[in-house]
Design goal:
Blueprint lengths: L5 H7 L17 E4 L2 H5 L6 E3 L1 H17 L7 E10 L5 E10 L1 H4 L2 H18 L4 H4 L6 E5 L26 E6 L10 E10 L6 E7 L14 E4 L6 H13 L3 H7 L1 E11 L5 E12 L18 E8 H10 L4 H13 L11 H8 L11
Parallel strand pairs: 1-4, 7-11
Antiparallel strand pairs: 1-2, 3-4, 5-6, 7-8, 7-9, 8-12, 10-11
Helix pairs in contact: 1-10
Length: 367
C-alpha cells in the first residue's frame, strides 16, 4: 500500500483553512491592522490576534495613555454592538485592532520602538512565557498591505531592503520570538544540497543540535534560517550556508538556485499562530571525485552532524516523525520538483501541492 506524504505536510500546515478577507477570520481571532482605513478597505491584516493577547494589548494601551496624561494610547479597538441578550444588554465584540493615528505618524521607527517596549515589558513581567522564552534579540520585518494608508509616514528612513520594490511595504520591525503573539507572517530560507541525478540522487540531511531551543535533535533541511530585518533571502541563505554547513560564499553563489517558495500556516501546541513563508533553494554539488567538491559539515553549535541519504532513505525519514515539521514539508516540495513524487504514486498529490502554496490571508512583501 502506498504511504501518502500528506501527513508530513499536515504537521506543518495544521491551521484549518478559513475564509480570507474581506470575510472576518475564524472566531475567536481578531484582525490586527496598521490603520482603520486598511480594515475598511478589506486589506489583508498584519496578523491575527488571540483573545488573551488582545486583553494584554488593551492593558498596555491604557498604561501608555495614562503615561501621556490622558493622551493617545497605542491601539484602538473597534467594537461591533450586536443584538441584545435575554437581559436586554447589548453584546460588544471587538472586530478589529489598529494603531492610533499618533503612533502611525511616527513612522516605521516609531512603530518599531513602541512594539519593542510592549513585548519587552511583557517578557519582563513573565507574560506569554512559551513564545517569549525563546527571545533571540533578532528583528523580523513586519509587512502591511502595499496600499496601506499607514505606510511611508513619519521622518524619512533608510529603506529596509534594497531591490525592485518587493520589500518596500515594511510597517515595523519586531523581535522574532514575539511574532507568533500577534499572528504575524514570518519569513525564512531553506536549502537542499544534493549529489547526483535521477535514481542515483542523494540528499544531505543534518541533525539539529540537542542544545537547540526549538526542535532539538530533529532532522532538518541542509541549511535553513530566518530572514532578519535588513537582509534579503539570498543574502540570508548565503550567510547560513557558511554558518551552518561550512560552505564558502563563492562556492554557493556559483551553484545556488532559487526554486520558489513554500507557504503554510502553523499553530503551535500552545495555540499561537505562525503563518510562514519559506524561500526555497537547491544546491547541486559537483561530483564527489572532482577538485571542486565540498560537502556540508558542522560549523557552529546548531548542527550535530550531516548524513548523505538516498531518496528512499529520505522518504523513510519523512515518515519516521523524526524531522522538524516545516523541514519535512520543504523536502516534500523538493521530491515533487525532482519528479520522485508524482500524481501516479501519491494519492493526495493535488492536496499536497495546494497545501504547500497556501494563501495565508495576512500581509506579505509586495502585496
Amino acid at each position: 500500500m502506498i504511504r501518502s506524504l500528506l501527513p508530513v505536510v499536515e504537521i506543518a500546515d495544521n491551521f484549518p483553512s478559513y475564509n480570507l478577507p474581506p470575510s472576518p477570520p475564524p472566531a475567536p481571532y481578531v484582525p490586527f491592522h496598521l490603520t482603520l482605513d486598511d480594515y475598511k478597505a478589506n486589506f489583508n491584516p498584519l496578523g491575527l490576534l488571540r483573545q488573551d493577547v488582545l486583553r494584554e494589548m488593551k492593558g498596555s494601551s491604557d498604561e501608555y495613555r495614562s503615561a501621556n496624561k490622558g493622551g493617545h494610547g497605542i491601539w484602538e479597538f473597534l467594537e461591533d454592538i450586536g443584538k441584545p441578550d435575554e437581559t436586554g444588554d447589548f453584546q460588544h465584540e471587538i472586530v478589529c485592532v489598529y494603531f492610533t493615528e499618533a503612533i502611525v505618524q511616527q513612522g516605521k521607527d516609531g512603530l518599531s520602538r513602541v512594539m519593542a517596549e510592549v513585548v519587552k515589558g511583557w517578557k519582563d513581567q513573565g507574560k506569554f512565557p512559551g513564545p517569549l522564552a525563546g527571545w533571540r534579540n533578532e528583528l523580523y520585518s513586519i509587512y502591511a498591505a502595499s496600499y496601506s494608508s499607514g505606510l511611508n509616514q513619519g521622518p524619512p528612513t533608510s529603506p529596509i531592503m534594497l531591490g525592485a520594490g518587493t520589500f518596500d511595504n515594511v510597517a515595523f520591525h519586531l523581535e522574532r520570538a514575539a511574532c507568533a503573539l500577534f499572528g504575524l507572517a514570518t519569513f525564512g530560507v531553506h536549502m537542499t544540497a544534493y549529489e547526483g541525478e535521477g535514481s542515483e540522487m542523494k540528499v544531505w540531511v543534518p541533525r539539529r543540535s540537542k542544545t537547540k531551543a526549538t526542535w532539538p535533535g530533529r532532522l532538518d533541511n541542509t541549511v535553513a534560517g530566518g530572514t532578519t530585518a535588513g537582509s534579503t533571502p539570498f543574502e540570508t541563505i548565503v550567510k547560513e550556508c557558511d554558518e551552518e554547513a561550512h560552505l564558502p560564499e563563492d562556492f554557493v553563489t556559483k551553484r545556488l538556485k532559487n526554486t520558489g517558495v513554500c507557504t503554510y500556516f502553523y499553530i503551535t501546541d500552545e495555540g499561537f499562530l505562525q503563518p510562514e513563508v519559506e524561500y526555497i533553494y537547491d544546491l547541486p554539488l559537483p561530483p564527489s571525485g572532482s577538485a571542486e567538491y565540498i560537502k556540508p559539515r558542522p560549523h557552529d553549535d546548531e548542527v550535530e552532524s550531516f548524513a548523505l541519504l538516498s531518496i528512499d532513505a529520505l522518504i523513510e525519514a519523512l515518515h519516521s516523525g523524526d524531522m522538524k515539521p516545516n523541514c519535512g514539508l520543504v523536502f516534500v516540495d523538493f521530491l515533487i520538483r525532482h519528479g520522485f513524487i508524482t500524481p501516479e504514486n501519491e494519492p493526495s498529490f493535488l492536496e499536497i501541492v495546494w497545501r504547500m502554496k497556501r494563501t495565508l490571508g495576512v500581509a506579505m512583501p509586495g502585496i
